Amino acid sequence: MTCEEAQELITALVDNELSGLEQSSIEGHLKECPRCRTTYQEEMALKRDIRRAGTTLSAPAALRQRILSDRRLFPERGRKTEGWAWLVWPARLASRPAFVAALLVLVIVPALYLMRPAPQPISLTALDTHDRILRGDISLIRAESQEELRAQLHRSVEGRFAPMGYDLSMMNLRPVAGVVQDVKGRKILVTVYEGGGLTLTCYTFQGSEKDSPASAALFFDPEKKINFYIFSRNGVNGVLHREGSVICILVSKMPMQDLLDLARSKSRPS
Amino acid sequence: MVRGGKAQPEEREKFSREAMTYLDHLYRVAFHLAKEEDGAQDLVQETFVRALGSYEQFAAGTNMKAWLTRILYNFFFDHYHQRKRWVSTADKTGEEEGGDYWEKIPTENPGPEGEILTKEQNVKINEALKRIPEEFRMPILLVDMGDFSYAEAAEILSCPVGTIRSRLSRGRRLLHQYLKRYIST
Fold it and tell me: Under an 8 A CB cutoff, do A10 and B176 touch?
Protein backbone atom coordinates (compact mmCIF):
# COMPACT_ATOMS: atom_id res chain seq x y z
CA MET A 1 0.00 0.00 0.00
CA THR A 2 1.31 3.45 -0.91
CA CYS A 3 0.96 6.46 1.38
CA GLU A 4 -1.41 8.04 -1.15
CA GLU A 5 -3.63 4.95 -1.07
CA ALA A 6 -3.54 5.04 2.73
CA GLN A 7 -5.01 8.56 2.97
CA GLU A 8 -8.70 7.65 2.73
CA LEU A 9 -8.24 4.65 4.98
CA ILE A 10 -6.64 6.88 7.62
CA THR A 11 -9.66 9.18 7.42
CA ALA A 12 -12.04 6.25 7.86
CA LEU A 13 -9.91 4.88 10.70
CA VAL A 14 -10.19 8.23 12.51
CA ASP A 15 -13.98 7.98 12.11
CA ASN A 16 -14.13 4.31 13.07
CA GLU A 17 -15.73 3.53 9.72
CA LEU A 18 -13.52 0.72 8.41
CA SER A 19 -14.36 -2.88 7.66
CA GLY A 20 -12.27 -5.53 9.46
CA LEU A 21 -10.16 -6.19 6.39
CA GLU A 22 -9.50 -2.51 5.72
CA GLN A 23 -8.64 -1.93 9.35
CA SER A 24 -5.99 -4.65 9.51
CA SER A 25 -4.60 -3.43 6.20
CA ILE A 26 -4.18 0.21 7.32
CA GLU A 27 -2.92 -0.75 10.77
CA GLY A 28 -0.24 -2.85 9.08
CA HIS A 29 0.77 0.15 6.97
CA LEU A 30 0.84 2.50 9.98
CA LYS A 31 3.20 0.18 11.84
CA GLU A 32 5.68 0.51 9.01
CA CYS A 33 5.19 4.14 7.98
CA PRO A 34 6.04 6.93 10.45
CA ARG A 35 4.81 9.58 8.02
CA CYS A 36 1.33 8.10 7.86
CA ARG A 37 1.33 7.60 11.64
CA THR A 38 1.88 11.34 11.97
CA THR A 39 -0.91 12.00 9.47
CA TYR A 40 -3.22 9.78 11.53
CA GLN A 41 -2.43 11.65 14.76
CA GLU A 42 -2.88 15.02 13.06
CA GLU A 43 -6.23 14.01 11.62
CA MET A 44 -7.40 12.78 15.02
CA ALA A 45 -6.43 16.13 16.56
CA LEU A 46 -8.09 18.05 13.74
CA LYS A 47 -11.37 16.16 14.14
CA ARG A 48 -11.33 16.76 17.90
CA ASP A 49 -10.71 20.51 17.46
CA ILE A 50 -13.40 20.95 14.79
CA ARG A 51 -15.93 19.20 17.02
CA ARG A 52 -14.98 21.38 19.95
CA ALA A 53 -15.23 24.55 17.86
CA GLY A 54 -18.73 23.47 16.81
CA THR A 55 -19.95 23.05 20.38
CA THR A 56 -19.26 26.74 21.12
CA LEU A 57 -22.05 27.65 18.72
CA SER A 58 -25.59 27.32 20.07
CA ALA A 59 -28.93 28.53 18.76
CA PRO A 60 -29.63 32.09 19.98
CA ALA A 61 -32.36 32.41 22.62
CA ALA A 62 -34.28 34.64 20.18
CA LEU A 63 -34.53 31.81 17.68
CA ARG A 64 -35.69 29.37 20.36
CA GLN A 65 -38.39 31.85 21.38
CA ARG A 66 -39.33 32.54 17.76
CA ILE A 67 -39.95 28.85 17.11
CA LEU A 68 -41.77 28.26 20.39
CA SER A 69 -44.15 31.12 19.62
CA ASP A 70 -44.76 29.99 16.02
CA ARG A 71 -48.38 28.82 16.05
CA ARG A 72 -47.80 26.58 13.05
CA LEU A 73 -45.40 24.57 15.23
CA PHE A 74 -46.94 24.95 18.67
CA PRO A 75 -50.66 25.54 18.14
CA GLU A 76 -51.62 24.97 21.77
CA ARG A 77 -49.09 27.50 23.01
CA GLY A 78 -50.28 30.11 20.51
CA ARG A 79 -53.91 29.53 21.39
CA LYS A 80 -53.37 30.69 24.95
CA THR A 81 -52.63 34.21 23.76
CA GLU A 82 -55.82 34.64 21.73
CA GLY A 83 -59.53 34.18 22.26
CA TRP A 84 -60.53 37.52 23.77
CA ALA A 85 -62.86 38.40 20.91
CA TRP A 86 -65.91 37.08 22.79
CA LEU A 87 -65.36 39.64 25.51
CA VAL A 88 -67.50 42.31 23.90
CA TRP A 89 -67.97 45.22 26.25
CA PRO A 90 -71.72 45.88 26.79
CA ALA A 91 -71.84 49.60 26.10
CA ARG A 92 -75.14 50.19 27.84
CA LEU A 93 -73.96 48.75 31.16
CA ALA A 94 -70.59 50.41 30.92
CA SER A 95 -72.19 53.79 31.20
CA ARG A 96 -73.44 53.01 34.75
CA PRO A 97 -70.87 54.01 37.42
CA ALA A 98 -72.04 51.36 39.91
CA PHE A 99 -71.52 48.64 37.33
CA VAL A 100 -68.06 49.92 36.50
CA ALA A 101 -67.12 50.05 40.19
CA ALA A 102 -68.40 46.52 40.75
CA LEU A 103 -66.50 45.36 37.72
CA LEU A 104 -63.34 46.94 39.05
CA VAL A 105 -63.71 45.02 42.30
CA LEU A 106 -64.71 41.75 40.65
CA VAL A 107 -62.22 41.78 37.79
CA ILE A 108 -59.32 44.08 38.49
CA VAL A 109 -58.65 43.04 42.09
CA PRO A 110 -58.51 39.30 41.34
CA ALA A 111 -56.52 40.09 38.20
CA LEU A 112 -53.95 41.99 40.26
CA TYR A 113 -53.83 39.05 42.64
CA LEU A 114 -53.27 36.64 39.78
CA MET A 115 -50.66 38.92 38.22
CA ARG A 116 -48.48 38.91 41.31
CA PRO A 117 -45.08 37.32 40.60
CA ALA A 118 -45.47 33.55 40.57
CA PRO A 119 -43.07 31.62 42.78
CA GLN A 120 -40.12 30.40 40.78
CA PRO A 121 -40.23 26.64 40.06
CA ILE A 122 -37.56 24.62 41.75
CA SER A 123 -36.04 23.74 38.38
CA LEU A 124 -35.28 27.38 37.60
CA THR A 125 -33.81 27.78 41.08
CA ALA A 126 -31.40 25.02 40.03
CA LEU A 127 -30.17 27.19 37.12
CA ASP A 128 -29.56 30.08 39.53
CA THR A 129 -27.78 27.79 41.98
CA HIS A 130 -25.50 26.57 39.20
CA ASP A 131 -24.45 30.16 38.48
CA ARG A 132 -23.92 30.88 42.17
CA ILE A 133 -21.76 27.77 42.54
CA LEU A 134 -19.65 28.88 39.56
CA ARG A 135 -19.25 32.32 41.13
CA GLY A 136 -18.20 30.75 44.44
CA ASP A 137 -21.18 32.26 46.27
CA ILE A 138 -22.19 28.93 47.84
CA SER A 139 -20.14 27.03 50.42
CA LEU A 140 -19.73 23.46 49.28
CA ILE A 141 -19.14 20.22 51.14
CA ARG A 142 -15.87 18.70 50.02
CA ALA A 143 -15.27 15.00 50.58
CA GLU A 144 -12.34 12.64 50.24
CA SER A 145 -14.19 10.34 47.86
CA GLN A 146 -17.36 10.07 45.82
CA GLU A 147 -18.73 7.50 48.26
CA GLU A 148 -18.13 9.77 51.24
CA LEU A 149 -19.79 12.72 49.48
CA ARG A 150 -22.77 10.57 48.57
CA ALA A 151 -23.04 9.27 52.14
CA GLN A 152 -22.91 12.80 53.58
CA LEU A 153 -25.66 14.04 51.29
CA HIS A 154 -27.72 10.92 51.96
CA ARG A 155 -27.45 11.44 55.73
CA SER A 156 -28.50 15.08 55.43
CA VAL A 157 -32.01 13.97 54.37
CA GLU A 158 -32.19 11.23 57.01
CA GLY A 159 -31.75 8.59 54.32
CA ARG A 160 -35.08 9.39 52.66
CA PHE A 161 -33.42 9.51 49.25
CA ALA A 162 -29.90 9.57 47.85
CA PRO A 163 -28.20 11.74 45.22
CA MET A 164 -28.30 10.17 41.76
CA GLY A 165 -24.55 9.53 41.80
CA TYR A 166 -24.06 9.19 38.06
CA ASP A 167 -20.70 8.05 36.77
CA LEU A 168 -19.78 10.77 34.26
CA SER A 169 -16.12 9.80 33.94
CA MET A 170 -16.60 9.17 30.21
CA MET A 171 -17.13 12.93 29.92
CA ASN A 172 -14.08 13.53 32.12
CA LEU A 173 -16.40 14.82 34.83
CA ARG A 174 -15.90 13.76 38.45
CA PRO A 175 -17.95 14.57 41.55
CA VAL A 176 -15.89 17.01 43.59
CA ALA A 177 -18.32 18.61 46.02
CA GLY A 178 -21.92 18.84 47.11
CA VAL A 179 -24.40 20.92 49.03
CA VAL A 180 -27.87 20.52 50.52
CA GLN A 181 -30.34 23.25 49.62
CA ASP A 182 -33.61 24.01 51.32
CA VAL A 183 -36.16 25.54 48.96
CA LYS A 184 -39.47 26.27 50.71
CA GLY A 185 -39.01 23.30 53.03
CA ARG A 186 -37.94 20.89 50.29
CA LYS A 187 -34.48 19.41 50.53
CA ILE A 188 -32.40 19.32 47.35
CA LEU A 189 -29.16 17.36 47.13
CA VAL A 190 -26.69 19.05 44.80
CA THR A 191 -23.65 17.21 43.45
CA VAL A 192 -21.01 19.25 41.65
CA TYR A 193 -19.06 17.55 38.84
CA GLU A 194 -15.95 19.12 37.34
CA GLY A 195 -13.45 18.23 34.65
CA GLY A 196 -12.02 19.42 31.34
CA GLY A 197 -12.85 23.05 32.15
CA LEU A 198 -16.53 22.19 32.52
CA THR A 199 -18.85 22.21 35.55
CA LEU A 200 -22.05 20.20 35.77
CA THR A 201 -24.42 20.22 38.73
CA CYS A 202 -26.86 17.42 39.48
CA TYR A 203 -29.96 18.14 41.63
CA THR A 204 -31.87 15.33 43.30
CA PHE A 205 -35.08 15.84 45.25
CA GLN A 206 -38.46 14.29 45.91
CA GLY A 207 -41.05 15.71 43.56
CA SER A 208 -42.94 15.24 40.34
CA GLU A 209 -42.69 16.27 36.70
CA LYS A 210 -44.72 19.34 37.65
CA ASP A 211 -41.49 20.72 39.06
CA SER A 212 -40.37 21.45 35.48
CA PRO A 213 -40.85 25.04 34.25
CA ALA A 214 -44.00 25.73 32.23
CA SER A 215 -41.81 26.88 29.34
CA ALA A 216 -39.80 23.64 29.21
CA ALA A 217 -39.83 21.60 26.01
CA LEU A 218 -40.75 17.96 26.46
CA PHE A 219 -38.77 15.14 24.91
CA PHE A 220 -40.02 11.57 25.26
CA ASP A 221 -37.47 8.77 25.08
CA PRO A 222 -39.39 5.88 23.50
CA GLU A 223 -36.83 3.27 24.54
CA LYS A 224 -36.64 4.12 28.23
CA LYS A 225 -40.16 5.52 28.30
CA ILE A 226 -39.00 8.58 30.22
CA ASN A 227 -40.06 12.20 29.75
CA PHE A 228 -37.21 14.69 29.65
CA TYR A 229 -37.96 18.39 30.14
CA ILE A 230 -35.38 20.77 28.68
CA PHE A 231 -35.10 24.41 29.57
CA SER A 232 -32.50 27.16 29.66
CA ARG A 233 -31.90 30.67 30.91
CA ASN A 234 -28.98 33.04 30.37
CA GLY A 235 -26.94 30.39 28.64
CA VAL A 236 -27.38 27.79 31.39
CA ASN A 237 -29.17 24.62 30.25
CA GLY A 238 -31.16 22.17 32.35
CA VAL A 239 -32.65 18.72 31.74
CA LEU A 240 -35.19 17.30 34.22
CA HIS A 241 -36.47 13.75 34.44
CA ARG A 242 -38.14 11.53 37.04
CA GLU A 243 -37.00 8.22 38.46
CA GLY A 244 -39.77 6.95 40.71
CA SER A 245 -40.59 9.65 43.24
CA VAL A 246 -37.20 11.32 42.78
CA ILE A 247 -36.53 14.12 40.33
CA CYS A 248 -33.11 14.64 38.79
CA ILE A 249 -32.00 17.84 37.07
CA LEU A 250 -28.69 18.09 35.24
CA VAL A 251 -27.51 21.66 34.77
CA SER A 252 -24.56 22.88 32.73
CA LYS A 253 -23.48 25.37 30.10
CA MET A 254 -22.69 22.52 27.74
CA PRO A 255 -24.88 22.49 24.58
CA MET A 256 -28.44 21.38 25.24
CA GLN A 257 -28.22 18.43 22.92
CA ASP A 258 -25.12 17.08 24.67
CA LEU A 259 -26.75 17.55 28.07
CA LEU A 260 -29.91 15.78 26.94
CA ASP A 261 -27.88 12.93 25.45
CA LEU A 262 -26.05 12.62 28.75
CA ALA A 263 -29.27 12.56 30.77
CA ARG A 264 -30.77 9.98 28.42
CA SER A 265 -27.73 7.74 28.61
CA LYS A 266 -27.58 7.79 32.41
CA SER A 267 -31.25 7.75 33.36
CA ARG A 268 -32.85 4.60 34.65
CA PRO A 269 -36.49 3.77 33.97
CA SER A 270 -38.67 3.93 37.06
CA MET B 1 -44.28 3.18 11.44
CA VAL B 2 -45.29 5.94 9.09
CA ARG B 3 -48.31 7.85 10.31
CA GLY B 4 -51.37 8.08 8.17
CA GLY B 5 -53.96 10.82 7.94
CA LYS B 6 -53.79 14.34 9.24
CA ALA B 7 -51.81 14.87 12.42
CA GLN B 8 -53.71 16.06 15.47
CA PRO B 9 -52.56 19.33 17.12
CA GLU B 10 -51.19 17.49 20.15
CA GLU B 11 -49.28 15.09 17.91
CA ARG B 12 -47.86 18.01 15.97
CA GLU B 13 -46.80 19.73 19.15
CA LYS B 14 -45.18 16.55 20.45
CA PHE B 15 -43.31 16.23 17.19
CA SER B 16 -42.21 19.88 17.35
CA ARG B 17 -40.98 19.44 20.91
CA GLU B 18 -38.85 16.48 19.92
CA ALA B 19 -37.50 18.44 16.96
CA MET B 20 -36.56 21.27 19.36
CA THR B 21 -33.94 19.04 20.96
CA TYR B 22 -31.95 19.29 17.70
CA LEU B 23 -32.15 23.08 17.54
CA ASP B 24 -28.50 23.72 18.39
CA HIS B 25 -27.32 21.19 15.83
CA LEU B 26 -29.56 22.59 13.09
CA TYR B 27 -28.51 26.14 13.83
CA ARG B 28 -24.85 25.13 13.66
CA VAL B 29 -25.28 23.60 10.20
CA ALA B 30 -27.48 26.51 9.05
CA PHE B 31 -24.97 29.07 10.22
CA HIS B 32 -22.15 27.44 8.31
CA LEU B 33 -24.32 27.29 5.21
CA ALA B 34 -25.95 30.72 5.35
CA LYS B 35 -22.90 32.49 6.79
CA GLU B 36 -24.96 35.05 8.62
CA GLU B 37 -27.17 34.95 11.68
CA ASP B 38 -30.49 36.17 10.27
CA GLY B 39 -30.30 33.83 7.31
CA ALA B 40 -29.42 30.94 9.60
CA GLN B 41 -32.39 31.68 11.86
CA ASP B 42 -34.79 31.87 8.88
CA LEU B 43 -33.37 28.63 7.57
CA VAL B 44 -33.88 26.78 10.84
CA GLN B 45 -37.41 28.10 11.35
CA GLU B 46 -38.39 27.18 7.81
CA THR B 47 -36.88 23.74 8.34
CA PHE B 48 -39.18 23.23 11.34
CA VAL B 49 -42.21 24.37 9.35
CA ARG B 50 -41.33 22.14 6.39
CA ALA B 51 -40.66 19.20 8.69
CA LEU B 52 -44.05 19.62 10.29
CA GLY B 53 -45.63 19.82 6.84
CA SER B 54 -44.09 16.42 6.05
CA TYR B 55 -44.75 15.09 9.53
CA GLU B 56 -46.75 12.13 8.20
CA GLN B 57 -43.73 11.00 6.19
CA PHE B 58 -41.46 10.73 9.21
CA ALA B 59 -41.16 7.18 10.46
CA ALA B 60 -41.33 7.22 14.26
CA GLY B 61 -38.28 5.70 15.89
CA THR B 62 -35.98 6.55 12.98
CA ASN B 63 -33.29 9.20 12.97
CA MET B 64 -35.07 12.54 13.38
CA LYS B 65 -31.81 14.48 13.55
CA ALA B 66 -30.73 13.18 10.12
CA TRP B 67 -34.20 13.72 8.67
CA LEU B 68 -34.31 17.34 9.85
CA THR B 69 -30.77 18.00 8.62
CA ARG B 70 -31.69 16.71 5.20
CA ILE B 71 -34.72 19.01 5.07
CA LEU B 72 -32.54 21.95 6.07
CA TYR B 73 -29.88 21.13 3.50
CA ASN B 74 -32.41 20.66 0.67
CA PHE B 75 -34.21 23.84 1.60
CA PHE B 76 -30.97 25.80 1.59
CA PHE B 77 -30.11 24.60 -1.88
CA ASP B 78 -33.61 25.15 -3.23
CA HIS B 79 -33.36 28.76 -2.14
CA TYR B 80 -29.77 29.18 -3.16
CA HIS B 81 -30.51 28.05 -6.67
CA GLN B 82 -33.88 29.75 -7.05
CA ARG B 83 -33.37 33.07 -5.35
CA LYS B 84 -29.62 33.37 -4.83
CA ARG B 85 -30.55 34.75 -1.46
CA TRP B 86 -27.72 33.15 0.40
CA VAL B 87 -24.36 33.75 -1.19
CA SER B 88 -21.79 31.05 -0.58
CA THR B 89 -18.41 32.32 0.46
CA ALA B 90 -16.91 28.87 0.18
CA ASP B 91 -14.36 29.72 -2.44
CA LYS B 92 -13.29 33.06 -1.07
CA THR B 93 -10.11 33.35 0.85
CA GLY B 94 -9.92 34.23 4.51
CA GLU B 95 -8.04 37.43 3.69
CA GLU B 96 -10.97 38.76 1.70
CA GLU B 97 -13.41 38.14 4.52
CA GLY B 98 -11.40 39.44 7.43
CA GLY B 99 -10.25 37.47 10.43
CA ASP B 100 -12.83 38.28 13.10
CA TYR B 101 -15.66 36.17 11.69
CA TRP B 102 -15.78 33.75 14.58
CA GLU B 103 -16.13 36.60 17.03
CA LYS B 104 -19.42 37.49 15.36
CA ILE B 105 -20.86 34.07 16.06
CA PRO B 106 -23.58 34.37 18.67
CA THR B 107 -23.12 31.97 21.55
CA GLU B 108 -25.19 31.16 24.60
CA ASN B 109 -22.10 29.83 26.30
CA PRO B 110 -19.80 32.75 26.92
CA GLY B 111 -17.36 32.74 29.81
CA PRO B 112 -14.59 30.37 30.71
CA GLU B 113 -16.58 27.15 30.28
CA GLY B 114 -17.65 27.96 26.74
CA GLU B 115 -14.20 29.02 25.68
CA ILE B 116 -12.69 25.58 25.29
CA LEU B 117 -10.70 26.64 22.31
CA THR B 118 -8.75 29.84 22.27
CA LYS B 119 -10.23 32.66 20.24
CA GLU B 120 -7.35 32.42 17.83
CA GLN B 121 -8.03 28.74 17.21
CA ASN B 122 -11.72 29.40 16.63
CA VAL B 123 -10.96 32.16 14.15
CA LYS B 124 -8.52 30.00 12.29
CA ILE B 125 -10.77 26.95 12.18
CA ASN B 126 -13.57 29.05 10.80
CA GLU B 127 -11.40 30.80 8.24
CA ALA B 128 -10.16 27.45 7.05
CA LEU B 129 -13.71 26.06 6.84
CA LYS B 130 -14.71 29.04 4.71
CA ARG B 131 -11.80 28.51 2.38
CA ILE B 132 -12.60 24.94 1.50
CA PRO B 133 -15.23 24.28 -1.18
CA GLU B 134 -18.78 23.45 -0.16
CA GLU B 135 -18.52 19.85 -1.34
CA PHE B 136 -15.78 19.23 1.23
CA ARG B 137 -17.20 21.43 3.95
CA MET B 138 -20.59 19.70 4.27
CA PRO B 139 -19.19 16.21 5.08
CA ILE B 140 -16.95 17.83 7.71
CA LEU B 141 -19.90 19.68 9.25
CA LEU B 142 -22.00 16.53 9.31
CA VAL B 143 -19.42 13.98 10.45
CA ASP B 144 -17.13 16.08 12.67
CA MET B 145 -19.59 18.59 14.11
CA GLY B 146 -22.84 16.66 13.73
CA ASP B 147 -21.57 13.21 14.78
CA PHE B 148 -23.25 11.54 11.81
CA SER B 149 -21.98 8.25 10.43
CA TYR B 150 -20.81 8.09 6.82
CA ALA B 151 -24.05 6.32 5.87
CA GLU B 152 -26.17 9.04 7.50
CA ALA B 153 -24.14 11.83 5.89
CA ALA B 154 -24.48 10.10 2.50
CA GLU B 155 -28.25 9.89 2.98
CA ILE B 156 -28.47 13.59 3.89
CA LEU B 157 -26.35 14.70 0.95
CA SER B 158 -27.81 12.13 -1.45
CA CYS B 159 -24.47 10.71 -2.49
CA PRO B 160 -22.65 7.37 -2.12
CA VAL B 161 -20.88 6.51 1.14
CA GLY B 162 -17.56 6.32 -0.73
CA THR B 163 -17.97 9.94 -1.80
CA ILE B 164 -18.33 11.01 1.82
CA ARG B 165 -15.12 9.20 2.70
CA SER B 166 -13.09 10.67 -0.15
CA ARG B 167 -14.45 14.20 0.36
CA LEU B 168 -13.77 14.04 4.07
CA SER B 169 -10.24 12.90 3.40
CA ARG B 170 -9.57 15.69 0.91
CA GLY B 171 -11.42 18.26 2.98
CA ARG B 172 -9.47 17.47 6.12
CA ARG B 173 -6.19 17.60 4.21
CA LEU B 174 -7.11 21.05 2.92
CA LEU B 175 -8.13 22.16 6.41
CA HIS B 176 -4.95 20.81 7.88
CA GLN B 177 -2.87 22.83 5.46
CA TYR B 178 -4.52 25.98 6.76
CA LEU B 179 -4.55 24.97 10.40
CA LYS B 180 -1.35 23.03 11.02
CA ARG B 181 0.11 25.79 13.19
CA TYR B 182 -2.95 25.73 15.44
CA ILE B 183 -3.70 22.04 15.91
CA SER B 184 -2.03 20.39 18.87
CA THR B 185 -1.43 16.67 18.37
Answer: no
